[in-house]
Design a protein that fits this description.
about 80 residues; alpha+beta; Rossmann fold; two-stranded antiparallel ribbon; globular
Amino acid sequence: MTMSLYASTLGLKRVDVIYRRVDDAFVDSLAFRPDSTLGVAGLMNAYRAGNVVIANAPGAGVADDKAVYAYTPQII
């Protein structure tokens, strides 16, 4: 089964890239913390399948640097 990610905004639109704004542990309740209501359940399956890119993937802390925050609107 191929996993893709869709957003519901006036109909379904496929999402190709995500800029993550939650901590690694909370990004996907199926992969990390089952008690989390943050993030997107199944996101890591879609990521591993290559159907969505996470611009600041879990484990890549460079985007969490405060110096990068000023550029967030341009990155998004």
